[in-house]
Amino acid sequence: MQKNKLHSTLRRAAIALCLPLSAIAVSCTDDIEFGSAFVDKAPGGTANLDTIWASEIYTGNFLTGIYSMQYYGLPYTGRSDGYNHSASSYVGKLDCFTDLYQCYYASTTMYGSYYNGSMTSAIDAPYSYINDYVWQTAREALLLIDNLDRVPIAELSTKEDKDGNKIYSGDELRKRWKAEARCLMAAKYADLFFCYGGIPMLTHNFSGSESSFELPRQTLEATVDSIVSILDKAIPDLPWAYNGSHDTNSEEKNIARWTAAAAMALKAKVLLFAASPIFNADESYYGGSDAETGKYVWYGDFQQSRWERALKACEDFMTRLDAEGYYELNQPTGTSNIDYRIAYRKGYINWSSRENLHVSRVHEYEGSGARYDWVKWVGIGRHSYLPTCEYMELYPWSDGTPFDWEADQKKINGTGNQRKNARLFFRYPDSKNKVASRDPRMYENMIVNGDYASISFEGSPSADEVELWV
């Protein structure tokens, strides 16, 4: 279903939990707290917001806490306390809503409630309206934006360090941190929008002394426009990119921060999703539900201008990329299938990859026991996320020709075309050799018959091969 395929674009967002800010240092006898916990108690004693805004260091810690609440595309905990609801392996990731992956673990919300049709509003959804820290992120981002002008950030004597990396003055740093906070807030709102359509949105903080206040659900159109407006305000105050390393004592350490490139990409993603038939159609999906008549999950009509607006956002990104560069595909070191597989793998898993417009991590690299790429979630028993046949069929043949098994088999059997002796995953020109017959990326995203049991990060395959039976 096209509607579901569009959801598959959601899966790689957020930022490292251990974000290295430009100035984090505290007393060696104090524990470091972030976010809401930091509001409760700053290092060295009882805290309040005045304590935080009196220090560049404490304010930096506060911003780090907001980063830690972003969505992460893979499960990484079995706990619910102190983590995003969507992070739990007992929930199920959004990819399992699509026709790309299937979750078979009966204890997950996805399998136990959604697949069998028993999902109700009483059950917390895989991306939670309440328990995925959307509103905490919005509140703390707005607090930071409202109070950054109070923070005594020292003026720097130079605009560049010895390596030519840009250093920000106090005023510039305030603008950048405000812009980052806006992106953090917009990203959380976008996460909800992808799942719920129109949502309520905080535009300012409440003091708690108001006699009353209302925060009604916005229409779909108002929600999209609000997210885009937040990003448009942030983009001018963000750098286009950082230079790709976090191993030196310089601005390079900020590789995981929001950038203008990331914000522009998110804007295009939101507009593309909004322009799609999910929302932008002559007829509503459910035929007149309350949510549709209220225009919370449907625009109410089709307008070509929505596609044109999304196209303009994409063109704006590509125009700036042409002007400023930096982002590019990771290139293979050779021409073999394995060379291309490793280039693809390093393109998304390396911290410093120039393919990453925005990177999120809960672990820096593919360490021992870590499962921070999708292929690691294919063969781990009850927690496995299994790719579907439809997903496999999306990958073309190794020469780039679209895959159509039935049509291709007729050609092979009838005419002996260029893929004579072709097999679904590998062909065997002789008894000692095999040649991958499909797009190299497929082998990195699913386990298939005949593949190497493992390939090291350096590209060395194991001697064992995969064998699967039905």
What layout of secondary structure does this protein have?
Layout: H1 2-7, H2 35-40, H3 49-53, H4 56-67, E1 101-103, H5 109-115, H6 134-147, H7 170-196, H8 220-234, H9 260-275, H10 290-293, H11 304-324, H12 337-349, E2 385-387, H13 389-394, H14 405-415, E3 426-430, E4 433-436, H15 440-445
Antiparallel strand pairs: 1-2, 3-4
Helix pairs in contact: 4-6, 6-7, 7-8, 7-9, 8-9, 9-11
List keywords for this structure.
single chain, 470 residues, mainly alpha, two-stranded antiparallel ribbon, two-stranded antiparallel sheet
What does this structure look like?
- With 470 residues, this protein is mostly helical.
- It has 15 helices and 4 strands.
- The N terminus is likely disordered.
- A two-stranded antiparallel ribbon has the order 1-2.
Order of helices and strands: HHHHEHHHHHHHHEHHEEH
Distance between the termini: 26 Å
Residue share in helices?
25-40%
Q: Helical region count? A: 15
Strand order of the largest sheet: 1-2
The main pleated sheet reads as:
2 strands, antiparallel
Mean residue pLDDT: 81
Strand content: under 5%
Structural class: mainly alpha
Number of DSSP E strands? 4
* Principal-axis shape: globular
Poorly predicted ranges (pLDDT <50, ≥5 residues)? 1-35, 38-42, 245-250, 416-421
Taking Cα atoms only, what radius of gyration do you get, to the nearest Å?
A: 24 Å
